[in-house]
Design goal:
The chain is α/β, with parallel strands linked by helices and 586 residues long. The chain is built from 14 helices and 9 strands. The chain has 2 domains: 206 residues, Rossmann fold (3-Layer(aba) Sandwich); 213 residues, Four Helix Bundle (Hemerythrin (Met), subunit A) (Up-down Bundle), CATH 1.20.120. Helices cover 61% and strands 9% of the residues. The protein has a 9-stranded mixed sheet, with helices on both faces. β3 and β4 form a beta hairpin. The radius of gyration is 29 Å and the shape is globular.
Length: 586
Amino acid sequence: MPGTRPFVNGSLLLAESRGVGRGDCLGTLERIATRAGAEGVAREAGELAARVGEGRFYVACVGQFKRGKSTVLNALVGYSVLPTGVVPVTSALTVLRWGAQQRARVSFDDGSTREVSVGDVGRFVTEAENPENEKGVRAVEVFLPSPLLSRGMCFVDTPGLGSVFGGNAAVTRAFVPQIDAAIVVLGADPPISGEELDLVQAVSTQVRHVLFVLNKADRLTEQERVEGARFAVHVLSRRLGRASITIHEVSAAERIAASAPTRDWGALEQAVDALAHEAGADLVAVAESRGAERLARSLLRELAERREALIRPMEESERRLEILRRSVAEAERAANDVGVLLAAERSRLTSDFRERQAVFYPRARDGAIRELEARIRSLDVSRARLRSRGYVEARALGSRTVERWRTQIEPLAEDLYRRAADRFVALANDFLRRTAESGAPGMEDLPRAIEPQVGFRARSELFYTNLMYLTTQPIGWALDLVRPREGTVRAVVGRAGEYLDRLLESNTSRIATDLGERVARSAQRLEGELRAALRNISGMAERALELARQRRAEGEAAVRAEIEMLEDLGQETESLLSSHQSEERA
């Protein structure tokens, strides 16, 4: 089944009461997959049936590394069971679910499980004691008598994006299809990254219920907190196409230490509790339907792949295997070479934007400050109002100056990116053409060409800052009332000029940063097209090799019998899928 790989880490639940309330569709899928030897599909179908029967649904806590996701979950359930620290702590998915007594269970990649004490959870999910998941932990379940979990809600603590351990983000992204609802934990420095936005968008296409939390609010000034929340609302609304986004500003650490809810914590708890009481049953039903269709399609692809491997002559299989080995090795080398070139171009462009900002900013500052002084001196207002009007004029000048540079640099930046991308596209397309025409098995499924780039593939997430905290100076305001007007004018010109200087520096820097992030996200998507195709080829190579080895050990009678079995199972699965879709439409 080209392009498909059963997701092991997503099959979390190690059901204690299998068969309770199991849907006929999932049960049939499990039986078909078991007969076909599709162990991954069979396991997922059985585990999904178990959690549907028990009314359990997943609320995943996702976000950038060091946002405090584990602390947020600890505060919500009322138990400090998830380890927290100053280094990446989560190397495997951890599920918090209802249990009459506190206990924990570890599931390993080899299918084994182990009961452990809650205090030992850190031995399996921290990088310090399980570096890069060397113990092969598939998931850890922690059972807690938390009222919030009593109605079937299960919290999932996911590995953080942006961690120094590359596999962590991959685990989080791969888990997205298993999510029923999500809590997205944000910060204010930076408020939200491009990688987080991509993940939030992926999650939002999967689920309807997403709660947004700005954590560690106790560490921020009022201005930082307001600007961080406003920026997050702005970019999330644009990316998700939602008119209304609510950000719960909280401090999970503060909540754990306090005896009563602080900041927006009460509102967050109410939102989570409402999710369990009002949407839980619907979430379970959607999870059952979505999972059944996904697993049925996965099983059909696997059955078709195995049948093709069986009907292929032995000589052709041996030839295909050798060609595949050479082609995949060449593909990996080519992808690495092209990726290095694109990364170099990306770095060069980012440096170029910074250099242009460094040239523009001082030149624009000098002229803007001269204009600001002229404006302030022409103001016909009282000394009491002069300073506030000076700051207003500084903001207006700063906004006009910065926006003028943005309108100049953005088209140039897109053109520079397009030229760099064109070189990547030319190399990638030459590689794709040669590979597709090589005669290697499966290579005919590769795209023949990546489309030329007309500009950025990622939207701008630019949000200007007004730095309002710089305009609050009680002593200066008092002095304005007692000194001569000319002295007040000079003081206002000086302070408003410094304010304008900071605005120009900060916001032109934001433009350069935004352009650099757009280049990075656009390049990642472009490179991802090629690497996704190669991953499919690599997966086919691995499966073809394993199937060929199995075929050598079988005789013709066994081959014919298995072909017939696979065809029968395929027809049964197609019938099941068609029936399921008809019921959903009805």
